[in-house]
Specification:
Its EC number is 3.1.6.1. With 290 residues, the protein is α+β, with helices and mostly antiparallel strands. It is 27% helix and 9% strand. The protein is globular.
């Protein structure tokens, strides 16, 4: 399976993501780790490796110059071969366990084949070490900032209309934008609804999706899930008046979100397909290759 995207820029799908690796500063400063400390008798050689601060927005890290050099060489070879910088597409899947996918032993074995994901994995690099929060919002924010939740401030999923914590932070899409990429987020956001934390204000050039999570748009309207609310005109009206976005929205960098449609249970049925269709068209819209 091969994916091809047009030149030099980026489409990021936050239906989905990759961990952020900040560029090294010109002169990294040594962190507070003690140098020359013998450590414990342990086979892990990194226990006594000093950490360095490579960017203001990052915690001190253990550097691997040889791996960094190899990565830069591969990227340079790819750009020389294709004449463009590589595009990056990030798929972020909620509630998918480590063993749900076929290449980790799941897939067919657990009754849900994942042939497309397995094909991508077989042609690429499978990362075997990761860090994740037990809920989606802190994990999403960590992916976009490279920070632990205690630092980016989103410790749990925001509730109806609750603000987020990404404002003022350095984000992956902003770093890519600064390198000439066009960045896009599609789908569920759920990292705060205040204007400063919305995707178009934290690095994305284009956003199509909703600000919260699907349940917040449908559960109070569903007579099977919440009949005491859905069948009560007073309670339904109360929720409608709460200050949170109830729409499928679109926004461009620095702009206001524009409502496309009210997200009803019926509208939700094919919303994923609507978003996918929009995302596929985005790289070449208006005749411009992105």
């Amino acid at each position: 399976m091969e994916f091809s995207f047009s030149p030099k820029r980026l489409v990021v799908a936050v239906a989905a993501a990759l961990p952020l690796m900040a560029s090294a500063a010109d002169t990294p400063s040594t962190a507070t780790a003690r140098k020359g400390f013998a450590g414990y008798d342990h086979p892990n050689q990194y226990l006594v490796k000093p950490a360095t601060t490579i960017a203001d927005n990052m915690m001190p890290v253990m550097q691997h110059p040889a791996q960094d050099k190899e990565t830069q060489q591969k990227l340079a070879e790819l750009e020389k071969k294709t004449g463009k910088k590589p595009n990056v597409v990030v798929f972020l899947l909620d509630d998918v366990g480590w063993m749900d996918v076929g290449f980790n032993g799941g897939g067919v074995a657990v009754g849900n084949p994942t042939p497309d994901i397995d094909a991508v994995a077989s042609q690429g690099l499978i990362l075997t070490s990761a860090y994740s929060q037990p809920s989606s919002s802190p994990t999403r924010a960590t992916i976009l900032t490279g920070q632990y939740s205690i630092h980016h401030g989103i410790l749990m999923p925001p509730m109806y209309g609750q603000p987020g914590g990404l404002q003022g932070l350095t984000t992956l899409p902003q770093l890519l934008h600064d390198q000439g990429y066009v960045t896009q987020a599609i789908g569920k956001w759920h990292m705060g609804e205040n204007k400063e934390s919305q995707p178009q204000n934290v690095g994305f050039d284009d956003f199509r999706g909703f600000n919260s999570v699907s349940d917040m748009y449908t559960e109070w309207r569903d007579v099977h899930v919440n009949p005491e609310v859905a069948l009560s005109p007073d309670r339904s009206e109360y929720i409608k008046q709460l200050p949170f976005s109830k729409d499928d929205v679109h926004a461009v960098r620095g702009g206001e979100q524009q409502a496309i449609a009210d997200i009803t249970p019926k509208y939700m049925e094919d919303l994923d397909q609507r978003w996918m269709d929009y995302g596929v068209k985005f790289p070449r819209q208006d005749g411009e290759e992105r």
